[in-house]
């Protein structure tokens, strides 16, 4: 371990970390077994997770048992699913029968889900091996994974800095080579922002594209499950397995699912019209970061795409709208954690009110309490019309604004976050400053659009992500553009020094 200096930046082209597609080929020809892949992941987790804390629980015995079953199928030359034998980590606010599902909260510390989330079921039906549950901001509320009740996750590129949030554990696990892919949830940027901070690919699908059944709700009209992976094509494969309607989720869409992997294989940006929102480069965006993203945009222009500046004036209202809606919905969803149905049962309080105070006061962290207070206020009599109702109206205007933009362009490009990964503790005392780190992702979530983050460079050794935004249910177009950019650059092939193996 002394050989590696944590918190220092290093690049290494031609990485030892392999993609899902590379591993699938090796599994198919017998070069490697699923059990070997699981063992490799477990070794990497054991070596680096004490320093990163990406995982809340490693399901070692369950993963080994599952991998052995998959290997028997390969040996018998039985038909295999598209993810057969591939280890995958699951964010710990997504229900799994194996292990615990805690949402990184003390109030659910010992909770075992009686069912799998639909997304997890579909991954397992495709042959994936669930290897562990990853850390997050408690109940998906935060932007840095500093608000986990079980300790913060560190950024593999610089362990003095945050990995982003709320899906920071999943992003860090992929970035550090612990797993080839992981699931996260994105309410206002919780996949894209940590993907950008950790230099991996992270995808937020169209709202309704992936079933929310089994995902512990924060903002019910915003939450979406999506994948992290090392490459765009890998992320496309994982999403294609999960996508589609689900009778257990009334908000899932019956819209047909395109072949996302094929879209990557035939990707070309020549002739595309690409919009660049001027508001995404306004005051408040770090100049070096903006310059790095503009270099990525210039590459598209050199490949024959038409670049067009567009205006999304309501971008500045996105944070206010998002947090009013999310906090209001979050306060309602948190009402069930009362120690009667969920939560700690060993309470000493006698009265019902005292019981609530003891269970929720001691079981919830500061950001969750903030959500309850802010959301309850926004929904209270006399304030509902002034706050929540008005936010809902502006939400409709934001959605229409994007719809108008997509009448002129095929996709939108811009930064994922206005800042690079920041130091631990630098924003926890100022919630508003923390919320503003999501200022470029929340408008997309409010509009329900698909978007992804793909690595596009570094500023002072810290990763920068390019945000690719597409119209509703046009994930294939988004993957095609992002894959074309990725394959022309080596950003996705570079590893943090922390994850380089001896």
Descriptive report:
The protein is an alpha/beta fold. Helix content is 38%, strand content 13%. The chain has helices at 20-29, 34-52, 60-75, 118-125, 168-175, 192-198, 232-242, 260-265, 287-302, 318-333, 352-363, 366-379, 384-405, 431-435, 442-447, 475-487, and strands spanning 55-58, 87-91, 129-134, 181-186, 201-204, 224-229, 273-277, 306-310, 411-415, 451-459, 462-469. It has an eleven-stranded mixed β-sheet, with helices on both faces. The model is unreliable at 1-15 (pLDDT under 50).
The major β-sheet equals:
11 strands, mixed
DSSP strand count:
11
What spatial order of strands do you see in the largest sheet?
Answer: 1-3-2-4-6-5-10-11-9-7-8
- Termini, distance in Å? 10 Å
Approximate helicity band:
25-40%
Please outline the helices and strands.
Elements: H1 20-29, H2 34-52, E1 55-58, H3 60-75, E2 87-91, H4 118-125, E3 129-134, H5 168-175, E4 181-186, H6 192-198, E5 201-204, E6 224-229, H7 232-242, H8 260-265, E7 273-277, H9 287-302, E8 306-310, H10 318-333, H11 352-363, H12 366-379, H13 384-405, E9 411-415, H14 431-435, H15 442-447, E10 451-459, E11 462-469, H16 475-487
Parallel strand pairs: 2-3, 2-4, 7-8, 7-9
Antiparallel strand pairs: 1-3, 4-6, 5-6, 5-10, 9-11, 10-11
Helix pairs in contact: 2-3, 5-6, 10-12, 10-13
